[in-house]
Amino acid sequence: MKLKSGKASCSALALVMMSLTGAHAESGKIIHDAEHYVLEAQHGERWAAEDASLQEKLDALEAKFGTKPNIIHIMWDDTAVGEVGIPEIQAVRGFETPHMNRMADEGINFMRMYTEPACTPTRAALQTGRYAVRSGMHTVSFPVEYSGMDAEEVTIAEVLSNVGYKTAFYGKWHLGDTEFSYAHNQGYDEAFFTPYNQVPSMWNPGAEVGNVITGLYPELYGEDKYDMDKSWQPLGQVWTLEGTKGGETLEWGPPPNIENYWDIETESQRRTLAFIDKSVEAGEPFFIAYQPILGAFFPDPRVAKRATANKNMLAEGLIAVDDFVGELVAHLEEKGIAENTLVMVMADNGPFIHYGPRGMAETLYSGGKGDFTEGGVRVPAIAKWKGVIEPDQIVGDILHVSDLFTTFARLGGAMDQIPTDRVIDGVDQTSLFLNGDGFSRRDYVMIYQGPNLAAGVKGRFKRDWKNATPGLSKNEFYDLYTDPRERTGEMIQQFHVKSMFNRQRARHELWMQEYPNRPDATPGPALTGISNERPETRKLYTSPVETEKLPFTPQQIGNYPLPFAGSDM
């Protein structure tokens, strides 16, 4: 491969990386981010020995139970590290999650799980094993989006399906409203999902009358004689879709009744347990991704009393998820599959402290949803696997949400199904799950805000790239052991890490030249292909006026690059 012109100044590094690219492309091996190979060169022999031992253990488990292990992954919204799994913190927050706390006692409490800074990017990273910037899913999608995760992205559902797993998705999908991005068109055998976040829960007549929203139901207030364009507001909406792989798409529980929105959660939970029963009866291993709605921005009128002293959305949502986790664990025991099932629970990003609902709070780290600080991207994460994961573990190793893609593939015997024509950021962390603290294969994270690199982490050190002054080093370096809340950036004390981070970024960006990112989510018409489509829904993807009267076509607008794609955090 030839170097691009203008890159001669970094030719030595480029030659090393390009030769590595060629070697991996030709060998059919998984291509990881460049930083991984620095670690592999130092620890590869030990990792290989660990893998051999781990494979013996996994083979023995399969022989014992007759199938590969089942995997259940539960991920909700906007929760700080410590809010779940540490009852001492909950004691001063006015709520408790006894079932998930017990999971931490009976398994691993990961104290350094990194995600992306917001909902859509984290969910994309989980599904694809790639930083969200690579798939173009780097920005939170809001209804109506007219875009989604590209059909060419390969999801964990597709990887596991190829080796005999039954796969299901229930809850908050949030990866687009285009037909190609629907969960059952992205590899899931069965899906019941919301294309968007929780914002549409406010899109109901009660919220309009209560002045929570303005303009969605103009018929509910006095006429505005200056309101000329009756087409620009999305007067139609879809809350929930369902479908099966290769089957039709249906809308479930059409809005605007707010009770229907709250019923999404109970229906997701019912289907999760039913899918377990169906898979056990068939003797097939299963993968379930349940991503709870957690809460809504408009209350359920059927609930007259709060269940926690905290009484805010997050606390109320967490105890509801916790109740189901208790029911789920009991159900696995009842079915006799607890010892052959990995259950993992986690949040998708830090607390919604900026312009969000009441009750969101920084706990151990500073920042929250949308931030590149530790509070934005470190989340609670707990894993339990009875008889396999040793109990009562606190793990301080770095783990990234993209690692779950590769780790689940390894547990399912599907590593050869992972694509080798693109960068897979997720590294196999089976050794960390089964061997415990100190066995991570990652000491780095690249943190993006939208499409922009905001920070880099390497072990205990962190560099703030977002606020760095070009041509000048200043207080943009942090030691996360001595300053975990990133309050006092350093320069003199950490000049020795500057070149380390420069090399890390150079390797990372050179790899992106070789394997370019998708610029944005892939555009397309919204909410098409719904068999029981309502007239209101059809208006979302058809022109509001006669197209022959316009000097442009809807297709031109649909294919136009998304404006301000990095701004909707």
Automatic annotation (TrEMBL):
Residues 1-25 form the signal peptide. PANTHER family: ARYLSULFATASE, ARYLSULFATASE FAMILY MEMBER. Transmembrane segments: none annotated. It holds the Pfam family Sulfatase. Residues 69-413 form the Sulfatase N-terminal domain. Belongs to the sulfatase family. GO terms for molecular function: arylsulfatase activity. Keywords: Signal. SUPFAM superfamilies: Alkaline phosphatase-like. It comes from the Bacteria. This is Arylsulfatase. It comes from Shimia aestuarii. The lineage of its organism: Bacteria, Pseudomonadati, Pseudomonadota, Alphaproteobacteria, Rhodobacterales.
